[in-house]
Amino acid sequence: MCMLTKCESCNIFLKLCKALHYQVLHLTLYQFSYKPNFIKMKNKINESCIAACEICVDTCETCSIENKGKPGMEYSVKLCIACKDACNELINASKNNENNLDALYKICEDACIACATECAKHSDMHHCKVCADACTKCAAECKAMLAIAA
């Protein structure tokens, strides 16, 4: 408040300052109260994504080994290896606490979808069915991480 005069301009300015102060204080409290919960949620989903990637790596490895040398399974083997490599890249980047993983989530999601689609064509073989299921789950987890980032 103006110490020299009690003019109307000073009163309006004071009301504006109080309103702005309230908004800044409210926003700050909002950020501090909800941001940790958002970070916890994002970390939990990221942990779930990385766990799905680790399972995907194992199943893709098994599937590629089982199909190696079988006639007509060359494409499936290549996709399993590419998917395994994409998942490993995401796992390593996440463990190194790299900040922007969005591109890796997308690459991993795309690789998993391609691998799941191909392996589902050979679901009469148990290892291909397991691989397709793991890749589908991993792709969904990566998609969930991308949805949070958006």
- Overall pLDDT level: 81
Please estimate the helix content: over 70%
Unreliable spans are 1-5, 21-35
Backbone structural class: mainly alpha
Give the oligomeric state: single chain
Instruction: Report the total helices.
Output: 4
β-strand amount: under 5%
Backbone CA Rg: 26 Å
Number of strands: 0
Largest sheet: none
Overall outline: elongated
Order of helices and strands: HHHH
Beginning-to-end CA distance, first to last residue: 44 Å
Describe the fold and architecture.
With 150 residues, the protein is an all-alpha fold. It is built from four helices and no strands. It has helices spanning 8-67, 74-95, 102-120, 126-149. Helix 1 crosses helix 2, helix 2 packs antiparallel against helix 3 and helix 3 packs antiparallel against helix 4 (126-149). The chain is elongated. 27% of the residues are buried. Mean pLDDT is 81; it is low at 1-5 and 21-35.
What secondary-structure arrangement, pairings included, does this model have?
Layout: H1 8-67, H2 74-95, H3 102-120, H4 126-149
